[in-house]
Amino acid sequence: MSMVTIQGKGVFGGVAIGRISFYSREKLVVKRRHIEDPQAELERLEQAKTITLQELQSLYEKARKEVGEASAAVFEIHQMMVEDEDYNESIANIINSQKLNAEYAVATTADHFAQMFSSMDDDYMRGRAADVHDVSDRLLKNLMNKSGGITSSDEKVILCADDLAPSETVQLDKDSVMAFATCYGSTNSHTAILARTMNIPAIIGLGESLTAEYDGKMGIVDGFTGTLYIEPDDVTLAKMQKKQAEDLRKKKLLQELKGKDNISKDGQHVNVFANIGSPQDMGAVLMNDAGGVGLFRSEFLYLESEDYPTEEAQFAAYRTVLESMGGKKVVIRTLDIGADKQIDYFKLDKEENPALGYRAIRICLTRPEIFKTQLRALMRASVYGNLSIMFPMIISVGEVRQIKKMLDTVKAELNAEGIPYKDDVEIGIMIETPASVIISDELAKEVDFFSVGTNDLTQYTLACDRQNPKLEPFCDTHHPAILRMIKMAADNAHKNGCWIGICGELGADTSLTEVFLAMGIDELSVSPGMVLPVRDQIINSSVKDREEEVLKAAGVL
Ligand code: PEP
Ligand code: MG
User: In this predicted structure, which of 98-107, 440-449, 503-512 has the lowest mean pLDDT?
Assistant: First the structure.
């Protein structure tokens, strides 16, 4: 095969060279086939079982290291299922007595066992039906020599997909991904955000030329130019290896910024914090020397689990993040689901316009039992560090007052139970709707801080769905309307004693850092991979004596 070049849009710089693994969510199609030699079929099954057991063992060890024994136990259960006597007897029976292929025998046995578990009285046993399917699918994939799906090998791969939903990104074995390349997706889709969190190159919008036929082939992702090379020729390979080495050298230089203050040449200080989706991102936060966590998207805790995360589970996650930051500020945003972040167990109605729908704070205020559990977990965790709580999608003063009332109820409950919490936890809101900008003078009187969510603010202001890649040419992220709104919110915040940060992706746009300095933005919260480049930009800027000029040039004044 000669080299194939596909052009897309780079959403995080860097060069990755490695094998392509195509993430396919298509269901395995199992054919019923007569076979002549049952013994050969049983041997094929044995081989697939050996590989399956090895995969499960490495998944178990990895999970045990990362999330602890309790969560890793599921892989032990899967191993036991593969070796279960009844399960194997049933498969062998079908192969031997009906002379049918191993795939069919496994699939039929899996259906039969899953049905048996489903009809049991006990909740725990009923839950095992999904495990039977899960482990049987793994066995089937190995029988069919399919490498698609979520990778579990030790080798790092370039993960290709049509696009990844947030619920899929949470299940990824992130340690084995060196780059992302997707057919669709938008600059601010969660795959793009994940790549920036993981500090790995990513390309979106490669279109339909990127197909599963490239699974297993060698590839190169150039995140700077948005180019994907498949089966590169020697000249391209050498060129890209050189580019990769240069990039790594530059990244190393940036690492030297670690421990230095973020002060512009003329003395303006800006906090540079990091955005995270789970406690597992803390490694990237610390490695990039962020001054704090400016946005913890707590909804990822909900996306990762199969049912509402308990108060204890949430408490543990918040506490881990607070403790890892050792007293530095951690802004945790309350649940922001809906729109592109859908969770089955919430059983939300299908909506015509989910981005303008029943989402985020609207769910929390109408389902107080969910909201209160989260607030309790947050307040309990507050004693373990420097916590701020932030609320998404605010459009009115009434909402903020309602939230504060609920928070008071939670505090009263904790008091009554003798559970400690910090009483001076900062309260803030996301500024991500045009309404919140326009009434930011009033909102600022209610809270301690604002954080501008430019991803949503841009989509609502420019009427451009952030999920729709077709709209990218229309979606001018530097539109003066957006920049003026940020300035308006900043002025109103400062007049009323609030600090203001930006936690949307625009905060990491280094071509705007000087504009943000001129507006007096106090904090920029960016993906961990962008912390050092943004700090570098701040240190090399000075705008004090030309603020008006900078703002005029950007169309803000
Ligand atoms: C935003 O809207 O800019 C934001 C930071 O929140 P999310 O991307 O999670 O909607
Ligand atoms: Mg948002």
Answer: 98-107
Q: How large is the average pLDDT for residues 422-443?
A: 98
Asked if residue 318 lies in contact with residue 385, where contact means CB atoms within 8 angstroms, the answer is no
2 pLDDT above the threshold of 80: yes
Q: What pLDDT sits at residue 481?
A: 98
Number of H helices and number of E strands within the chain? 21, 16
Q: Under a CB-based contact definition with an 8 Å cutoff, are residues 369 and 312 in contact?
A: no
Ion ligand 2: residues, Cβ under 5 Å: 432, 453, 456
SS3 label, residue 73:
helix
Catalytic residue, candidates 160, 364, 464, 503: 503
Which residues touch 27 (CB under 8 Å, ≥6 apart)?
Answer: none
Extract the tokens encoding 272: 């540079």
**CB-based burial label for 412 (10 Å; 0-12, 13-18, 19+):** exposed
Q: How far apart are CA 440 and CA 420, in angstroms?
A: 33
CA distance linking residue 194 with residue 202, whole number of Å: 9
Catalytic: 160? no
What distance in Å separates the CA atoms of residue 137 and residue 125, rounded to the nearest whole number?
Answer: 19
pLDDT at 31 > cutoff 70 = yes
Nearest C-alpha to atom 6 of ligand 1 is from which residue?
453
Amino acid of residue 410: V
Known active-site residue 190: yes
How far does the centroid of ligand 1 lie from the alpha carbon of residue 141, in Å? 37
Total residue length of the chain: 557
Stretch among 301-310, 329-338, 364-373 having the lowest mean pLDDT: 301-310
pLDDT-derived band at 119 (thresholds 50, 70, 90) equals: confident
- Pairing state of beta strands 177-182 and 499-502? unpaired
Task: Find the distance separating the first CA and the last CA of the chain, reported in whole Å.
Answer: 56
What whole-number distance in Å separates Cα of residue 505 and Cα of residue 147? 34
Give me the pLDDT at residue 465, please: 93
Q: What 3-state class would DSSP assign to 104?
A: helix
pLDDT band at 101 (very low <50, low <70, confident <90, very high): very high
Q: What atom in ligand 1 is closest to the CA of residue 432?
A: 2
- Identify the band that residue 153 occupies on the pLDDT scale cut at 50, 70 and 90: low
- C-alpha 88/C-alpha 254 separation (Å) is 55
Asked whether residue 166 carries a pLDDT value surpassing 90, the answer given is no
Catalytic choice (78, 160, 183, 190): 190
Query: Which of 169, 430, 455, 506 has most ligand 1 atoms within 8 Å of CB, for mutation?
Result: 455
Rounded Cα distance, 202 and 530, in Å: 14
| pLDDT value, residue 61 | 82
Residue 29 CB contacts under 8 Å (≥ 6 apart), including other chains: none
CA distance 161 to 28: 17
